[in-house]
Amino acid sequence: MIWSSSRPQLGFKRVAVVLLVAPIVALAPLDPVQAQQIPSSSVNAAELISSLKETTLQSGLTVAATTVRTVETTTNLNLRSSPSSSSKKLAVMPKGTELSVSATHAGWSQVRYGGKTGWASNDYLRTVAKAIRAGELGKTTAELKLRQNANTVSKVLTTVPKAGIFTVKRISGGFAQIIRRGKTGWVQSKYLSTVAQKPGREIYIDQKYTSNRAGLTDIYWTRVSGGDLRESVNGKILIGDIPRNSVVYRDLKLEKTAGSVSGWIFVHTQGMTGWMKTSQMSRKSTATTKPSKYTAKQVLAQTNGKVPEKMLAAIAWDPEKTLIASPALKDLNRLNAAFKKKFGKNIDIDLAYRTRATQDAYWIKLGPYVAARPGTSNHGWGTAIDMPETYDYSFRGKYFKWLKANSKNYNWVHRKILEEESPYAEAWHFDYVGR
Ligand SMILES: [Zn+2]
Predict the structure, then answer these.
(1) Nearest one of 411, 266, 268 to 338, comparing CA atoms
(2) Which candidate, 296, 259, 256, 228, places its Cα nearest to that of 435?
(3) Do domains 137-195 and 204-282 have the same CATH topology?
(4) Cα 12 to ligand 1 centroid, rounded to whole Å
(5) Pseudo-torsion of CA 73, 77, 83, 89, nearest 10°?
(6) Pfam family example for this protein (predicted)?
C-alpha cells in the first residue's frame, strides 16, 4: 500500500492517553518492578548501580540521544524527577507504555509522560522495533546476511549492504523476506527501517521530499545550453550541462531565507535545488514541439545523457514543455490523445530526458538503490517518461491501469521489471519502444 499514496503512511502507535484513564490505584506503584516479582524490602540491584553511577558522576550532565528511540515500559514504572531512584516520583507509567527517549544518562532515560518530563530506569525499558510490514519499503540499517530461511542459521545467499532499499515481500517471526540480486531470502526485520515513501527521481532536501514543482508557480526555462545549478552563488556545481529549454521553478521563499543575490535565483530544477544565473533564464520555452526527421535508432546511437539538442523536442501539451527524444514525440502525442479522450485531461509528465550530468548528480546523491546507474537509463536518450508519484498513477490507480493496458498500442510500454512484485517496482515509468 506504500505505493498507493504520495503521503507517508503512519505506523500504528500505542496511545499512552488511553492508558492514562486507567485508575492509578489498579497499578502497583513500585519502583521499578511489580510487587509479586520482588520482596518489598529488597533493593533493586540494577537501579542501585545506576544511582551509584549517578553519585560518582555528580555532574548531572545528560547525553542527548543521537536518534530518537522509542521504548516501552516492561513493568509499571516510576517516572522520576532526575536520573536517580531517590529522586521525586512524578508519575507511574503502566507496563507497555510507549515512550520516546530524548536523552540518556547513567542507565536512565529521559522521557515524557502525562505531560511531565522525567527519568525512567533503562532496566525496565525495552526498545520498540518499528515493525515493518509486508508490502512496505524497508531500508537496511546495517550490512546484513540474506539467508535462505527465516532464521539465523540457514545458508547465507548473499550480503545486503547498509542503506539498501527493498520491498518487503513477507514477514515471518522477526524476519523479512526480500529480493537481492535475483535471490529471494530473509533478513532480520529489526534491521529494516520503514521508508515512508518511495524515493524516486526527486531528491531529499533536509530530509524532506520535494519535487520540481513543489507547489511553485514561478516558472522559467533555461535559455542557454549547458547551464549550471550551483550549491551556492559561484559555489560548487550540483548539476552542470543543463540543456536549453529545461524547466526551472523559482523558490522565492527559500531564496529570501538564504539571502537574495543580484543576478541569481534559487530554483528547483532537474529534481534538485540550487542557484542559477538569471541571465540563463527565459520566461518561455523555445524548443520545437514538432516531431523531427530523426529516428529512435539515431537517437539511441548517441551517448546516453548527451543527446544533441536537435534530436530533442518539447511536449506541446505539457505545461513544463518537458524535453523528450523527438522521434518519440509523435507516438506520445497519440497516446495522450487517447488518454485525454478517456479521462478528459492530458497525461501528467514529471520527467523525460535527463542529461548525463543530472544522472551523475543523482547517483552521487541517492546511490545505487534509488538512482539508475548513470548511462543506463532510457531517460538519458529521452525515450522514457515518468508520471508524478500520485495515487492515480500508482499500481492501484486508474491512470496507471489504463496506461499499462493501452500504451503499447502507441509504442510506449511499462516494463515487466517494474511491475509491482519486482524489487524495482515503479508504476510511473514508461519506455518508448518505437523506431
Ligand atoms: Zn523513470
Answers:
(1) 411
(2) 296
(3) yes
(4) 32
(5) 150
(6) SH3_3
CATH label, 14-127, candidates 3.30.465.10, 3.30.420.310, 3.10.50.40, 2.30.30.40: 2.30.30.40
Q: What is the pLDDT of residue 114?
A: 86
The single-letter DSSP state of residue 403 is: H
Q: Per-residue pLDDT for 216 more than 60? A: yes
CATH code: domain 296-432 is 3.30.1380.10
Residue type (1 letter), 121: S
User: Residue 372 pLDDT > 90, yes or no?
Assistant: no
Residue 366 CA to ligand 1 center (angstroms) comes to: 14
Question: Rounded to an integer, what distance in angstroms lies between the CA atom of residue 183 and that of residue 55?
Answer: 54
Residue 327 CA to residue 290 CA, distance in Å, equals 10
pLDDT grade for 40, boundaries at 50, 70 and 90: very low
Domain made up of 204-282: CATH architecture = Roll (2.30)
Domain boundaries, the chain: 14-127, 137-195, 204-282, 296-432
C-alpha cell at 270: 532537474
For the segment 57-72, the average pLDDT, to the nearest whole number, is 40
pLDDT digits (tens, 9 = 90+) for 143-174: 888 999 999 899 998 888 777 767 788 888 88
Ligand 1 centroid – CA 167 distance (Å): 18
Residues belonging to the chain: 435
Compute, in angstroms, the gap from residue 413 CA to the centroid of ligand 1: 12
Taking 50 as the threshold, does the pLDDT of residue 261 lie above it? yes
Q: Rounded to the nearest whole angstrom, what is the distance from the C-alpha of residue 203 to the centroid of ligand 1?
A: 14
Residues in contact with 175: Cβ distance below 8 Å, sequence separation at least 6, in sequence order: 150, 151, 186, 187, 188, 189
Q: Calculate the average pLDDT of the chain.
A: 76
Would you say residue 181 has pLDDT above 70? no
* Residue 20 CA to ligand 1 centre (angstroms): 49
Identify any residues that bridge with 133 across adjacent strands, giving them in sequence order: none
pLDDT category, 392, cuts 50, 70, 90?
A: confident
Superfamily of domain 137-195: SH3 Domains (2.30.30.40)
